[in-house]
Amino acid sequence: MQEHEIRQLIEDVRAGELPRRGFIQKMVGLGLTAPMASMMLMHSGIAQAQANPTYKPTKRGGGGTLKVLWWQGATLLQPHFANGTKDQEGSRIFYEPLASWDNDGNLVPILAAEVPTRENGGLSADGKSVTWKLKKGVTWHDGQPFTADDCVFTWEYAKDPATAAVTNGVYAKVMVQKVDSHTIRVSFDKPTPFWATAFVAAEGMVIPKHLFAPYIGGKSRDAPANLKPVGTGPYKFVEFKPGDLVRGAINTNYHMANRPFFDSIEMKGGGDAVSAARAVLQAGEYDYAWNLQVEDEVLKRMEAGGQGRVHVVPGGDIEFIQLNPTDPVAEVDGERSSMKTHHFAFSDPAVRQAMSLLCDRQSIQEFIYGRTGIATSNFLNNPKKYRSPNTKFEFNVDKAAQILDAAGWKKGGDGIREKGGKKMKFVYQTSVNGLRQKEQAVIKQGCQKAGIDLELKAVTASVFFSSDVANPDTYGKLYADMQMYTTTMTQPDPERFMDQYVSWEISSKANKWQGRNISRYTSEDYDKTYRAAQGELDPVKRAAMFIHMNDLPVMANNVIPLISRPRVRGANLKLVTSLSGWDLDMSALQDWYRQA
Amino acid sequence: MAGSTRASVTADTAGAAARRRAGTSPWAEAWRRFLRHRMAVASLVVLTLMVLLVVVGPLVWKLSINDIDFRARLASPSLAHPMGTDDLGQDILARMLYGGRISMAVGLAAMLMAIFVGVLVGAIAGISRGWVDAGLMWLTDLFLSLPQLPLLLLVIYLFRERLKNLFGLELGIFLLIVFVIGCFRWMPVARLVRAQFFSLREKEFVEAARALGASVPRQVTRHILPNSLGPVIVAGTIDVAAAIISESTLSFLGLGFPSDVPTWGRLLFDSKDYLDIAPHWAMFPGMAIFLTVLTINFIGDGLRDALDPRKVL
Amino acid sequence: MGPYILRRLLIAVPSLLGISVVLFTVLALAPGDPFSELADNPNVPAEVKLMLRAKFGLDDPIWQRYFHWFNAMVHGDWGFSFISRVNVDQLIMGRLGVTLAVIGASQVVALMIALPVGIYSAARPYSLFDRIASSLAFIGFSLPTFFTGLLLILLFSIHLHWLPFVFRTHIPGSGWAWWWGHIEQSIMPVMVLGLFQGASWTRYVRSAVLDVIRLDYVTTARSKGLPERSVLMKHVVRNALIPVVTLVALTMPQVFGGAIVTEQIFRIPGIGSLLIDAILRNDTPVIMAVTFVFSCLVILFNLIADLLYGWLDPRISYR
What we know:
The complex is a heterotrimer of chains A (596), B (313) and C (319). Chain A is of the alpha+beta class and 596 residues long. Chain A has 17 helices and 21 strands. Chain A has helices at residues 3-14, 20-29, 34-43, 85-92, 148-159, 168-171, 209-212, 273-282, 296-303, 349-357, 361-369, 397-406, 434-449, 461-464, 495-498, 524-535, 539-555, and strands at residues 65-70, 99-101, 107-109, 129-133, 174-180, 183-188, 235-241, 245-250, 264-269, 288-289, 308-323, 374-375, 410-411, 417-419, 422-423, 425-431, 453-459, 482-487, 559-572, 575-576, 593-594. With 313 residues, chain B is mainly α. In chain B, helix 3 (38-60) packs across helix 4 (92-127). The longest helix of chain B is centred in the middle third of the chain and has 36 residues, at 92-127. Chain B is globular, with a radius of gyration of 23 Å. With 319 residues, chain C is an all-alpha fold. In chain C, helix 1 (2-29) packs antiparallel against helix 14 (284-312), helix 6 crosses helix 8 (176-213) and helix 10 (228-251) runs antiparallel to helix 14 (284-312). Chains in contact: A-B, A-C, B-C. At the B-C interface, helix 5, helix 6, helix 8, helix 11 and helix 12 of B face helix 1, helix 6, helix 7, helix 8 and helix 9 of C.
């Protein structure tokens, strides 16, 4: 998709010929995020859609207890120290940001009075600042008023490196000034088309100045409010047992009318995904469960109990395989998989192409993932309408065999192909996860039929995804011939996602394997386009560049996308939730209710 | 009632027994006594059959263990698949036979290692006093306190590659697992044996042996040890089951055999989510483990009765 | 006896120290990283990550970290969890009650099953009762707890809807409803653990009683005309208890350490699940604190067992 085609689509939206939602879906199909698509429209002056009010209850409270299951329990309730989304979700019950993203990529104001646009003066013409107007009359759970001082303080707190906040990266790049008691201005040092980062969504939760001020900087860990959150959210803090239980009671002074519906909330942690699914879908003991990574077959059977059903929310997560272009065995200057080496098989594009043909995505989707996964050939999700001609997926053992034969890889006596004395025996690693082990088995069989032998290796998730320098099994090291995992697109802005393929981010010993480019892919075209996109102010041009970048590692087959994984949640039949694939599950908690 | 000593044992059978005993060695005698224990013999036969099955079976039953056939998934037992298929359509019988080699080998080897180390430590601690006992008990307490998981991660992380290169993938991991499981199960055996030794070494027959000039090792091996085998045998049977299951826990953590190696414990673990959909999948490995445990137990019972000088067989 | 106890207690202190050194070294050498989730978060710049590691002293040499920990421990400071950012003793205290209640109850159940069944089986070996009891015992310990737990859940929670299977530490209401709520949700986990433990203990009790019941003094007691019951209780059981005491002492520390698999299945917030979480996330202070207390209990209960041997069998002497 070229830039001018995107501009045409935007004009279609403006003229009313293409519904806004249709445009956003197309952009998501090409690999962008809904928030980014929405920002493109806003930049072009097309107003956001009005949120449809589907909230039915007419009074606050009376709904009983909302019981939710997070099988990875929250261990912290301070959003700026969060170790992963589970802690952010736990915090989100009590704290709120200025705005959050709904499923269509629209910004929904929570603590902001309205979404800043050019028309209402929120967005400056030069793209260097955003002015947020805050809601009036909002109070913290302890009765103190919520003002601009709290936002300014949150910024100071997060940007201070001594605080060691995990949200540091977002706030260190901006400047926040108080304009008046209910207005703040966020300024950037250069024009920033994607301005909705500070104070928005998971990283945007505002903390109260009057409780955290004495604990900024080095004393941050001592703040009592770290364990007893005081926020502006729909529920007040009652009890917290790390890893096990978070309890909240209704906030009777909540700033949105008739909300929340429930009198209290209980978030229980621990266990695994299957039993969480059972608890909601079969036993009806709980109302909602997060992240059901379970085979669809099992889920369907559980739904037959008639207590609950599965919600599949599209997101940007992709399960994919990386083929190592370097040699994972030879050690050069104290590191393996060094850029100075070449992989005996995967540096040959024909071999990579053959590998892509040997992945039976269709079977994996149909028999393992079911509703919870969609076979894909693009690094990012791609509905049929916009399938690029070069990147369709195909499972064809004979064709792969032909390609390998033509490239000089002949079958030896034991049925395994070899060339120049080296056999095609590869180590294929991933994390421990029932679904993933099954995928490995399917792919191993496909490869076996073509004469390639795979040794399956599974590493415990906490080790695989760690950044431990001494451990050879981390995904950053890629000390295997091929590896597989899911990359998550939790950042609405793809720039921080696409740096996974730039050459200066290549993970190596020099940067302690913290570099984001784990697949060791390099391409001059990619690097050039990325640099250009970084400085590009026009969001449409930028989007076109990202789409171009998306295709490069995929068409070279260094990266084999397998399955696009939406978010899978389980909820009681009577529970009405409001889930977004671009923000936390709890981002619209105030709108949840139970039907009679 | 069984178990009580017959009052006139010496009078009755002394003559006949003495004539028999004149021509046979103690081991042949023990073997003869073992053969009179019906359940033990039956169990020995069953166990041997199982071992033969898993060794020879894969050569006879030709279906592959990882032939994925999605159309035949979760099928109940039938002629084509006597034990049914799992959720990827793989034949369970083939997987059971192949995995059985590993499970039985791991179960028996780990159990033997645990028993051997445990009896050794317990016997030495039990017969000596003072510092040797204190030192060995400190070692036992240390191993009891060690958190198994971090230690496992450490050992496997340190030695996996080396063993893989020396012995090949399967044998290397096999040795590692047997070592690791054995290391965590010898302590109860040691303490039980030591306790038995404490009470047995004060008994009259040991005193008598001492008075006759028997050296300490001889007292231990000929007199005390055979009588303290009771808890050891029970521990043995429990350890076999525990070893087979520990192996599956290790593999669940990514530390054991690769995920596509169908050991019985792994089959049990894979099938647990499908218990209400395809119970046959879990039933066969469960029964196999149960049968192994049962046979080992009766063989152990037979051994103990054969070695017990007071028991009349 | 007195000097023996004193000697053992004196030895206990350096042996505990020795164990703590080994524990600490193992944990320090084991792979894994407490801040692994941060690694994937592009919002966290490298300096912040390094600062966090420095703050928690993760990059200091091992012996230095050990002395830090030891010093703190001696002063009553059990450490600060990397993951939860709370004091470790708070974490442990919060879970102690549940662990003691559930695991403790299961040990009692196990004992209550093992003793009568084991003794009766041994009194009538190879009878119908013995065969059935033994078979059930074999099934009991051949099946892993994750399996039996699941079976029970499928039967009692899903199929029959009789019992809840997610353990809630907070039950609204008070009085009888509160008690019943707690009992209801504890039945299945206690049964799973208790039956598993009881299965193996039954076998040990049976074997121990069988050993004793053939001995001469039992025959003497019977021939004296004592009722069978009295023979069993007064003469047989006391002498057969030595292996049982050993076993109970070996498993007592687990009442503190929890049962990892059962806690996972039923979502019981016990110390076992705290430990496994801490291990998988390399939260070293929590692991050290829990394993250290665990090793204290191990040493303590083994000492008690050693003393009990002398009481049970007067011929055992401690020279």
